[in-house]
Specification:
This protein is of the alpha+beta class. Helices cover 24% and strands 22% of the residues.
């Protein structure tokens, strides 16, 4: 694995905690990033002892402290807009305000100077230099409270979205072509976040081929492995659904069949 690589291990909740111990040993607990909860289905009314199971686990590790990371964002909902951006300007634009000072005093530099005659509160400093604050004020991006406290205006329509958290709702396909087929949006999120164009994506149990299709459509190189003839057939069918010139002329990938050794057959 590349030093900038990541690994996402999708596992059943019954065994996931044991597998994490092994992953900590292999990749180092310092490279453990998230235990992601993946909501996989709608509630079921099974009559059994215990709570209904809606989730699986995804264990996310990186190879090092400097992985590829393309910050994922998700769109705000209408409720998010109302909650996070409760104010409205004269043009009808939603916004909120945030402090322009931060903890800690600075003795030297430009972040401790007066801004329009106002000093940062005791024990704090301006988040940027006074010249930048003055430009924000000139551009109408500073809101002054009734007590003379300046705050930075953040417009909703200028934000890309909110940070993705560690609970994901990507439900399984209703009519899968392969028993362990995953939601393609789930794989798109992982691949776009933790790889760059022309990065190599490896799926060592490629099953339905959904990961490989996601890698292909997102401009990544990929390697898929599976020993099931059914899986290979499903993967080929999945790749044939890729739009574009994937199968025009000579494909830019190939399938290889590996013969099993006598030792493997005896296990």
């Amino acid at each position: 694995m590349s030093e900038q690589g990541s690994i996402y291990l999708h596992i059943d909740y019954k065994i996931g905690h044991y597998v994490k111990i092994v992953m900590d040993e292999v990749f180092g607990i310092e490279n453990f990033r998230n235990d992601i909860t993946r909501i996989k289905c709608n509630p079921k009314n099974f009559n059994r002892l215990g709570y209904g199971n809606l989730k699986d686990l995804i264990l996310f590790y990186t190879k090092s402290s400097n992985p590829i990371w393309n910050e994922p964002r998700e769109k705000y909902t209408e409720k998010d807009f109302e909650k996070l951006f409760p104010k409205m300007d004269k043009q009808g634009r939603r916004y909120t305000t945030v402090p322009i000072h931060a903890p800690g005093e600075t003795e030297n530099g430009k972040s401790n100077k007066p801004f329009k005659g106002v000093l940062p509160p005791k024990g704090r400093h301006w988040r940027t230099d006074v010249e930048t604050l003055a430009q924000w004020d000139k551009d109408g991006l500073i809101e002054w409270s009734s007590t003379g406290n300046p705050r930075k205006i953040i417009f909703a329509d200028e934000r890309e979205g909110k940070r993705v958290q560690d609970i994901w709702e990507f439900k399984d396909p209703q009519y899968p072509t392969y028993p362990t087929e995953k939601n393609p949006d789930l794989l798109d999120l992982i691949i776009r976040t933790s790889s760059s164009e022309n990065s190599i994506v490896l799926d060592c149990f490629c099953g339905s081929g959904t990961t490989l299709k996601s890698a292909q459509t997102n401009g990544r190189k990929w390697i898929g492995i599976d020993q099931s003839v059914f899986a290979i057939k499903a993967t080929k069918n999945k790749l044939e659904s890729v739009e574009g010139d994937l199968f025009v002329a000579k494909p830019d990938y190939e399938f290889e069949e590996l013969e099993e050794s006598p030792a493997a057959n005896s296990l």
